[in-house]
């Protein structure tokens, strides 16, 4: 039977929703509306004079090869962060779910990176991979003969920001996968084991399909994270370099608006970025969710 909540007072549901609606309006809808208005204007660096230019900012952006190249950079970065982050977190969650002794300590250590600020995470990875004093770069050079230099090599720079972003987000993914694995009925696993199914077959045929809602949720969250929440990591590590090879869309909004003084152009970039993320989220819910087993 379908269960519904009925309120005697018609205003009570709205009163319960009011705090969240106020927060969303103040911190999302109002800034988004301001960005749309500013994207149709041209302002000086100090915001003292404003001129209405309509869609000129958008036309200039779509005709800029450097801005169009940032779409490719963002796509590569977001795919790597989402896929690698989800895969590693799932692997760690499977291992943690099988540990009997010290499981609490093991899981606690894997949650620690989530408490680290993105800028701090970027600085940590920057020091580890520094071409001059980095522990990891020194090990790569002396043990494997691999000369790491993210200041000159764009592939190394992309690898650095992807590794830092994945490390920062992996705890979040890990928590949800552990919770999902614990919700899988042990009777199904035991029945498959009695039938002779090996651990890999039990995971692939039973646990992974039942984790599809969690995986889909984390896919959406990780894509949004890669588009928005990785700005501090990139600013602390590569600052969009070498050249503009790691300047994803959210970093370019900051660079052109704050450092370049193009407030109208950066507002137009933020509007485009917002609609891109909304479109990606809709596509994921429209097509990817079909493969989810609830």
From TrEMBL:
Lineage top rank: taxon: Bacteria
Transmembrane parts of this sequence: 12-33, 75-96, 108-128, 148-167, 208-228, 267-288
Predominant location category: membrane
InterPro entries: MetI-like, MetI-like_sf, UgpAE/MalFG_permease
CDD domains associated with the record: TM_PBP2
Subcellular location: Cell inner membrane; Cell membrane
PROSITE patterns: ABC_TM1
Matches recorded under SUPFAM superfamilies: MetI-like
KW RNA-binding (keyword) present: no
Membrane topology: Multi-pass membrane protein
Keywords: Cell inner membrane, Cell membrane, Membrane, Transmembrane, Transmembrane helix, Transport
Domain ABC transmembrane type-1, residue spans: 71-284
Cited PANTHER family: BLL4140 PROTEIN (PTHR43227), SN-GLYCEROL-3-PHOSPHATE TRANSPORT SYSTEM PERMEASE PROTEIN UGPA (PTHR43227:SF9)
Record NCBIfam families: PRK10561.1
Similarity remark: Belongs to the binding-protein-dependent transport system permease family.
Quaternary state and interactors: The complex is composed of two ATP-binding proteins (UgpC), two transmembrane proteins (UgpA and UgpE) and a solute-binding protein (UgpB).
Protein name: sn-glycerol-3-phosphate transport system permease protein UgpA
Source taxonomy: Bacteria, Pseudomonadati, Pseudomonadota, Betaproteobacteria, Burkholderiales
């Amino acid at each position: 039977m379908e269960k519904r909540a009925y309120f005697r007072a018609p205003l009570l549901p709205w009163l319960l929703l009011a705090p969240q609606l106020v927060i969303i309006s103040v911190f999302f809808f109002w800034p988004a509306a301001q960005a749309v208005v500013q994207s149709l204007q041209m302002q000086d660096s100090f915001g003292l004079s404003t001129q209405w230019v309509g869609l000129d900012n958008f036309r200039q952006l779509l005709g800029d090869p450097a801005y169009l190249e940032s779409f490719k950079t963002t796509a590569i970065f977001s795919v790597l962060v989402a896929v690698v982050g989800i895969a590693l977190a799932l692997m760690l969650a499977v291992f943690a779910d099988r540990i009997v002794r010290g499981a609490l300590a093991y899981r606690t250590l894997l949650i620690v990176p989530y408490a680290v600020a993105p800028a701090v995470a970027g600085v940590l990875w920057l020091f580890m991979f520094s071409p001059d004093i980095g522990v990891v770069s020194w090990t790569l050079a002396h043990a494997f003969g691999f000369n790491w230099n993210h200041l000159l090599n764009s592939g190394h720079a992309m690898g650095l920001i992807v590794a830092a972003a994945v490390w920062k987000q992996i705890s979040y993914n890990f928590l949800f996968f552990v919770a999902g694995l614990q919700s899988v009925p042990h009777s199904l696993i035991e029945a498959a084991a009695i039938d002779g199914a090996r651990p890999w077959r039990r995971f692939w045929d039973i646990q992974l399909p039942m984790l599809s809602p969690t995986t889909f949720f984390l896919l959406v969250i990780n894509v949004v994270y890669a588009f928005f929440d990785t700005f501090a990591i990139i600013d602390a590590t590569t600052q969009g370099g070498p050249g503009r090879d790691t300047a994803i869309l959210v970093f370019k909004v900051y660079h052109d608006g704050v450092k370049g003084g193009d407030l109208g152009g950066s507002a137009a970039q933020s509007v485009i970025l917002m609609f891109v993320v909304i479109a990606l989220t809709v596509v994921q819910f429209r097509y990817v969710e079909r493969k989810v087993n609830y």
